[in-house]
Amino acid sequence: MTSYGTDLIIILPELVVVAAACLVLILDPVTPRSRKELLAWLSLGSLALCVGLTGGQIGVQNVSLSAFNDLVVVDGYARFWKLLLYGATGLTILMSLPYLKIEGLHLGEYYAFILLALSGMMVMVSGADLLTIYLGTELMSLSLYVLAGLKRSSPRSLEASAKYFVLGAFSSGLLLYGISLLYGLSGGTRLSTIAGALGARGFDDPMLLIATILLTVGFGFKLAVVPFHMWTPDVYQGAPTAVTAFMAVASKAASFAAFLRVFIEGLGGLKADWSVLFVLLSVVTLVLGNVVAIVQTNIKRMLAYSSIAHAGYALIGLAAAGRSAGESGGTPGIASVMLYLTFYAFMTLGAFAVIAMFRKGGLEGDEIEDFTGLAKRQPVAALIMLVFMVSLTGIPPTAGFIGKFYVFMAAVEAGLSWLAALGLIFSAVSAYYYMRVVMLMYMRDPEATAAETPHLVPSPALSIVLACAVAGVIIFGLFPNPVVTLALQSVLLLK
User: Fold this and answer.
1) What is the DSSP letter of 298?
2) Is 229 helix (H, G, I), strand (E, B) or coil?
3) Mean pLDDT for each 10-residue chunk of the chain (495 residues)?
4) Angle at CA 437, nearest 5°, toward 434 and 443?
5) Which of 148, 167, 326, 460 could make a disulfide contact with 161, Cβ separation 3.0–4.6 Å?
6) Element of type H or E holding 363
7) SS3 category, 366
8) Of 203, 204, 198, which Cα lies nearest the Cα of 183?
9) What is the rounded distance in angstroms from the CA atom of residue 413 to the CA atom of residue 410?
10) Residue 67 CA neighbour count, 13 Å, CB half
11) How far is CA 95 from the centre of its chain?
12) Half-sphere exposure (Cβ direction) of 117: Cα atoms closer than 13 Å
């Protein structure tokens, strides 16, 4: 087999996803409006095939494959993130089946854009070259811009799409400028070339400092860290709920995966310098995300600021990786970020799935007050939402607690005990706005005089999503070792 054929086999999962997206677009015009679900099942079938292709390589974690002259690498680190992205995308598609029908959004291209966004994320997590990562980022972003404005009759949705596009284009320009500066400094865009050329030069070189800041700004927008978070509340509130869940989980996971690879592999020699920057970003992100979430009245906006705060917790792990010394000192920090985002995926997807079930007068019931008395009207739904709120707070024995435990432990081992303590304090602060939802559900009576009482519209697909999310939160909260071991093994070839 030729080298080109071998390269295509290495990126076969990406090819499957792109082919499925193209097939969905071809079949959409000839698929009856009432049978658009077939396109969703086609998309899920392609994801199942990808899970088999990627999951079959889990037993060979120490094997790293490269393709296209080392522009793409498939190692244990990339496989870990790809499996997480497959799961998040599959649950999003299942969530979308009843949601799109209720909203009257019978658009087959929706599933195509979901798959195209996924393909961009897969390129991001496997990119070993800055331009490859940039192309993956743009493919993901362009698809998400369209998905955010899917409700074409809703001014709020169109506004969300426009804001996301304008700010995203600006951040992409800054990211590309940072890449160009690194190319001028190192003579290449491959991460290995950059690492070899820059070594441990440090920030005494002002051009290197500017390039690092520009990369941080570009990725910081995708991660929704302060002060690059301005788009997050409006986009989370205006976008369709299923799309919001996809952005909150899959987009954030892929961006963190690329962010980690660039700074650990490409700029690892500078970690003593950039770790200080990430400590600062983590602190301001924790403060703003948690404090502003307290005053929100819309639950999607509250979860938007919550998402910002959770990015701050994950940055603690990255800062710890930069501060750790020794040959394997950064492993706990990197693995803690991977664990945190894995567990975050389950509780966030589950919370948005509950929101997607809420209807009030034919519209989404996304106000926090809409949850008043839910325990008396729908006790099972209230119990499920309780599990997600407890996990997002970080209370044991849930997966949210395990995620924060490993992040804080990595910070303590790296000599950042004060940062771990600060994270613990703001975890207590977050309990205020998460438990407010619980208080409304269990300690307030439904408003019998309300003209439109919020109600739930359950469906088998949403039930599957909620069952998977609850199982992930509880099982990984009690038995996290398999995921912990997999994350630690996946980091070995990254550094």
Assistant:
1) B
2) coil
3) 72 91 88 80 91 73 73 87 93 87 78 93 91 92 89 82 87 90 86 80 78 90 87 87 90 92 83 84 92 89 91 91 61 88 92 81 69 82 90 90 92 88 91 90 70 62 89 92 87 64
4) 130
5) 148
6) strand 363-364
7) coil
8) 198
9) 5
10) 19
11) 16
12) 31
**What are the φ and ψ backbone dihedral angles of 489, each rounded to 5 degrees?**
-65, -35
- Main-chain phi, psi angles of 298, to 5 degrees: -95, 130
355 vs 372: CA distance, rounded Å: 13
Nearest of 261, 318, 302 to residue 134 by alpha carbon: 261
SS3 (DSSP) at 185:
helix
3-state secondary structure of 361: coil
A 10 A CB-CB count for 358 gives 22
Full-model pTM? 0.90
Residues 6+ apart with CB under 8 A from 38: 27, 31
Q: Does residue 482 have a cis peptide bond before it, meaning omega lies within 30 degrees of 0? A: no
Residue 199: DSSP 8-state: T
Q: Collect all residues with Cβ–Cβ distance below 8 Å to 322 and sequence separation of at least 6.
A: 263, 271, 272, 274, 275, 278, 330, 333
Of the chain, the end-to-end C-alpha distance in Å amounts to 31
Please report, as a single letter, which amino acid is at residue 219. F
Q: 295-324 burial, b if ≥16 CB within 10 A, otherwise e?
A: ebebbbbbbbbbbbbbbbbbbbbbbbbbbb
Both tokens of 69, joined, read 């002259």
* DSSP assignment string, 122-138: HHHHHB-BHHHHHHHHH
Q: Which H helix or E strand runs over 487?
A: helix 481-491
Residue pLDDT, tens place only, 342-357: 999 999 999 998 888 7
Rounded CA separation 423/308 (Å): 13
